[in-house]
Amino acid sequence: MADPETQPLQSDFFAPWPWQSEVHKQLSQRLSEGRFPHALMLLGPAGVGKRQLAVSLASLLLCEALVNPGEGVAACGECKQCRLLGGEGHPDARRLMPTDQSRYIRIHQVRALGGVVMESPQVAKRKVAVIERADQLNLNAANALLKTLEEPPADTFLLVLQREGQPVLPTIRSRCQILRVEAPGTVEAKAWLAQRRDEDAAALDQALRWAGGAPLEALRLLEADRPGQRGQCLKALQQALKSELTMSEAVKPFLAMPLTEALDLLQGWALDLARAGADPEAIADSEAAPMLRFLAGRRHPAELITLHEAIMEVRRGLDYNVNPELELIGVLERWRQLMRRPGVANPA
């Protein structure tokens, strides 16, 4: 029986996404040569398919009858191991993720995983653990994971997912081989998205821009009608910067989405603002570009980075019972401070 602190890994779809075929082939070759890393960190932005790649790699590690070994190998989908993975979950493949409203993986979960790692496999030749995501480990859990990463048993493989731009202990990174998971090219991403959505080409282009080219994130944004909400948020921020809206009014469209997504939006603009300080043409969000270029021209580049740091500080406090409205108003106020003339003190 699976430990209640960890979940059996389950998926009825073993193949990687189309844009991952080459990296999948390279890793399958390393497996056939006995060079597959025992701790592999999949690093990339949200929505590029890190989890599906991890599931696909887990299926390779577990399958008893790989198809085309060494030539773009794939799990057979029919052996006992594949049936377990595609059924209720494989007992030798575990998934570690937050199990409550805290948004964090706790130390007792990592300790439970450590116990599983030290046991012999139940039905397969190997054990696999997928950790989603490394930045969702609280400090104690991260330190506990280090012990498992230092000397994993020969039959154990850890696949650690890490969202680009989010903090993770350097000691965890140093104990993993790091593989960047990239988004596909624009043409491929748009074609994939067009097969799943009915929006016109302009709407698909816009969603992909907002998602940083990540197809799965663009799909999620479209399904949740985030483009419409995003436009409302941008308009509210622009009006707040001009003092046309009070902060309590400007924050309303941001409150219509989950706090983490509102912070994602503001953080994306903050990163673009920091880039604009060095290169005004380096802005990814074309709709926000005029506002960001204007703000970048008013401040020293070093000052622009502090806005991103302020949002990261809010993120670090999400483990506590924070008030979303107050947190977002605080971030919006930091944006409005950029409108003040350099050298003018903030009002008391």
* Gyration radius over CA: 22 Å
Q: Which percent range fits the helix content?
A: 40-55%
Principal-axes shape call: globular
CATH third-level topology of the largest domain: Rossmann fold
Structural class: alpha/beta
Largest sheet: 6 strands, mixed
Write out the CATH superfamily name of the largest domain.
P-loop containing nucleotide triphosphate hydrolases
What is the architecture of the largest domain at the second tier of CATH? 3-Layer(aba) Sandwich
Return residue spans where pLDDT drops below 50 for at least 5 consecutive residues. 343-348
Report the count of strand segments: 6
Element order: H for helix, E for strand: EHEHHEHEHEHEHHHHHHHHHH
In angstroms, what separates the terminal alpha carbons?
60 Å
Strand order of the largest sheet: 1-3-4-5-2-6
**Mean pLDDT, nearest integer?**
89
- Helical region count? 16
User: Number of domains in the coordinates?
Assistant: 2
The share of residues in extended strands comes to: 5-15%
For the record, what CATH class of the largest domain applies?
Alpha Beta
What labels would you give this structure?
348 residues, alpha/beta, Rossmann fold, Zinc Finger, Delta Prime, domain 3, 2 domains, 10% strand, disordered C terminus
